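Hi support team,

I submitted a single chain yesterday and got back a structure, but I'm not sure I'm reading the token output correctly. Could someone confirm the output below corresponds to the sequence I sent? I've pasted both exactly as they appear in my results page.

Thanks,
R.
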Amino acid sequence: MDIGKQAEKAEIFRKLHQGPRMLLLPNAWDVATARILEECGHPAIATSSAAVAYSLGYPDGQRISRGEMLEVAGRIARAANIPVTADLEAGYGTTAKDMEDTVKAAIAAGIIGMNLEDVTDDDESSLVDLPLQLEKIRAIREAASSAGVPFVLNARTDIYLMPIGPEATRFERTVKRLRAYREAGADCLFAPGVYDLETIQKLVKAVEAPLNILANPACPPIPEMEKAGVARVSAGSGIMRAAMGLVQRIGNEMLQARSCEMMFVGATPFIDLKRMMTRHANEANA
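Hi R., thanks for writing in. Yes, this is the structure output for that exact sequence:
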């Protein structure tokens, strides 16, 4: 991808966090889902690390390699005409140098932003020490600047999602980390697992930066979060899991009801998918 165009996409994506409307960010896991979401009219899309991992046969949580994740994310970025940010988990490494390598590879793949988690495994003992996490964020910022792309870094803490530590201090610890991430160079701050409107309102005021919330059935309605000042709501793996739920229902219907009716309800027409992929192939060869 032309570095100038990539920088322009990064700036477009950054501005989407500044209003006037909250950014509703859908997550794709392959080129087809990315093209569908683009044609729906979304101004930007993200990848879902869990969805990509599942589609390649890995469990979620730092099990897939950086190369495999960026191969998929890069295909999506090259296929889309809108900005594509990637969920790159904990950055696929434990050092600042690893973060530098990840960002360079992501930019080379056409990505204009990333999520960075502060846990590296499935339990709270894997929470990265704050000084090291800040070092990683600064390394990401410096590597992106050197590459000439205003890379949009969404720094995430899993204190609520995992959850980590005593509930009584969860808010204060989340604010401490997110504010530190902002000072180290993060553009957006991500607090998955926060669903209470009052807590969301307090977080928006406390972090004093664009706040990302993960969509969940327990979340307040979108208009209420928008009114509270949330800058971005991400779908995460939700769209992929909804699609997999449909696969399960169709599979069960075929066996139990000896029917394929559900398969045709609301299905994207074959000709539409062919048109999207033909356009992608033509643009790639232009």
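A quick pointer for reading it: Residues 78 and 110 are 7 Å apart (CA to CA). Let us know if anything else looks off.

Best,
Support desk
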